[in-house]
Amino acid sequence: MLDIKLLREQPDFVKARVQARGGDLQNLVDQILNYDETRRKAETDKQGLQSERKTLSKNIGALMGQGKADEAEAIKESVRTLGDKIAALEEESQAAEEAQMNLLLSLPNLPHEDCPIGADEDANPVVREWGEKPTVVDAKDHVQLAEGLGLISFDDAVRIAGSGFAVYRGQGARLQRALIQYLLDTQTIQNGYEEVNVPHLINRECMFGTGQLPKFEDDMYGLNEGQTFLAPTAEVPVTNLYRDTILSEEQLPIKMTAHTPCFRREAGSAGRDNKGIIRMHQFDKIELVQVVHPNKSVEVLEELTGHAESILQSLGLHYRAIELCTGDVGFSACKTYDLEVWAPGQGKYLEVSSCSNFGDYQARRMKLRYKDGDGKNQFCHTLNGSGTALPRLMVALLEQYQQPDGSIRIPDPLQKYFGSDTIAK
């Protein structure tokens, strides 16, 4: 959520930055400021009437003491009238505040000044590539490979859950487990994250806290009449561990990682990357979250992205990093890098990680603060990234390491977790 003071003091700046995202968001800024003016005027008028009522109420006691009951009664009537006006102003103020807050929650974060300007994903620049793109003769896609080796059953998944799900079997289930363990060990042992194990059911307040609500509710699996949700990503429960918290400056940075299943309806994504396990309603992911000092978030984004990249590099997977332009950066983010891994069987790159700096946008929603050296409460900055999503990592691993005989070579650092150097029939 943006600071209302920023909108009041620099409305043209805010409009310019949100305009860079595209869409008619400038009118939203004007609406927020109009409700803000209505609320503040109602509060000022209410305080004036409350002061007047207080003065009149004192006079009533004095008049009664002087035996002037008729005059006191007349003033009582004025006090009752003032009370009605105060109640009306209170109602007006509360209505304006509620409307203002709803609009503020619908206003996205401002893109960072360093974000490349562009309308959509076509304007996202490639900032670096790693490794050589492998040459795979007659490359099979992961569906052919997985079904041929008995790693994944889509028919079983349809039978028990429907489309958009997968059942990993035998060596496929073992590979999934090995990847999860390897990713967690890398981020905790090598990169210094604290591992946390969090609930997979999230309350509504937490979903608001990280920005999934209200905008993306149709993509979420809601329960209990929308008061509880299946976690769409570990970002939500992990970041909200510090909701309504005032940290000491010495506690920063906080670095956490978690493995969770993620649940998404993928509303509106029909026909997009729906082959095999590329886009699913349930998938596993290792999430990286950092809570940092505001002065550090820009450099920490580079660090966190590097931690996600270290996974792909250690597994020897060719990938590229792109920076999202202003028209493609996520709703709550101010700056984002996507990591796209090469999938020979698809003949294209697949997003396997998205690493974002949210500035103080999420922290304001969650009331996540720290006490600075002057004893003042300041909002932290939050960041997160996938370290990484399992399905597309597995797609890339199967397709980049496929062998002419149909087997899959296991990268060296993963072999001790998987227990073998090859997947074969």
Describe the largest sheet.
8 strands, mixed
Shape: elongated
Strand content of the residues, in percent? 15-25%
Q: Distance between termini?
A: 52 Å
- Count helical runs: 13
Give the total of domains. 2
- The CATH class of the largest domain turns out to be Alpha Beta
Decide which structural class fits the backbone: alpha+beta
Spans of at least 5 consecutive residues whose pLDDT stays below 50 are: none
Placed side by side, the strands forming the largest sheet appear as 1-11-12-13-16-10-9-4
Overview of this structure, please?
The protein has 425 residues and is an alpha+beta fold. The protein folds into two domains: 4-106, Helix Hairpins, CATH 1.10.287; 121-423, Bira Bifunctional Protein, Domain 2 (BirA Bifunctional Protein, domain 2, 2-Layer Sandwich), CATH 3.30.930. It is built from 13 helices and 18 strands. It has an eight-stranded mixed β-sheet. It has a three-stranded antiparallel β-sheet with strand order 5-7-6. Strands 8-14-15 form a three-stranded mixed β-sheet. A hairpin with a 4-residue loop joins β12 (335-343) and β13 (348-357). α3 (26-65) runs antiparallel to α4 (69-106) and α7 (171-190) crosses α13. The radius of gyration is 28 Å and the shape is elongated. The mean pLDDT is 94.
